[in-house]
């Protein structure tokens, strides 16, 4: 089954292709002939995911998936949250963003360093409805960045199960436990149970 993934983030596209293969052929927005930037002006991950999926679905007429995700750091009252990609400016390198988070947590000890990645996925089904799934992955903010895999905040996100940062995991290991892996697998399950005429 062909689905359009409404994202311009190549890292996410790669991860999601891997998660949904072989049942679903994931095509990019560009491959579907859509080139727009949908403003993420919602206050929740769900709101942003629904807006992106429905906007792109109306333009291409295909089943369209969109996600909105981010890092919530408890010591920072949930920041950067829905503003994760825009935190300190969209073009600021993650080496700087990650160091800034470590610095803001200099007085946080043990469980005070808890954080989670959350991912909301919306699937806009043409002529039907939009389904929505949200999943999280718990972790802790490290005292220094480690690892070169993944992207974004992965070098400072420590995963207890592997005793490594997300950036030290292979993509296969990351997809097994990540917010996006869990949410997209749940979406695949839901799509398989829907009858398409
Ligand atoms: P979105 O593209 O609007 O969903 O923004 C997601 C942002 O959240 C990314 O640009 C990263 O800053 C952060 N983020 C979400 N998922 C991950 C992940 O798996 N690793 C690292 N950073 C992530």
Given the C-alpha coordinates, what overall shape results? Answer: globular
Assign the structural class, choosing from mainly alpha, mainly beta, alpha/beta, alpha+beta, or little secondary structure. Answer: alpha+beta
Radius of gyration over all CA atoms, rounded: 17 Å
Q: Could you say which small molecules are bound to this protein?
A: inosinic acid
Notable traits:
single chain; 197 residues; alpha+beta; Maf protein; eight-stranded mixed sheet; 5 helices; 24% strand; binds inosinic acid
Structure notes:
With about 200 residues, the chain is α+β, with helices and mostly antiparallel strands. It has one domain: Maf protein. The chain has five helices and eight strands; from the N terminus they run E-H-E-H-E-E-H-E-E-E-E-H-H. Strands 1, 2, 3, 4, 5, 6, 7 and 8 form an eight-stranded mixed sheet that branches. The mean pLDDT is about 95. It binds inosinic acid.
Condensed summary:
The protein is α+β, with helices and mostly antiparallel strands and about 200 residues long. The chain is built from 5 helices and 8 strands. Helices cover about 30% and strands about 25% of the residues.
List the helices and strands and how they pair.
Elements: E1 2-5, H1 10-20, E2 25-28, H2 45-60, E3 64-73, E4 79-80, H3 94-104, E5 114-124, E6 130-141, E7 157-159, E8 164-165, H4 171-177, H5 179-192
Parallel strand pairs: 1-2, 1-3
Antiparallel strand pairs: 3-4, 3-5, 5-6, 6-7, 7-8
Bound molecules: inosinic acid.
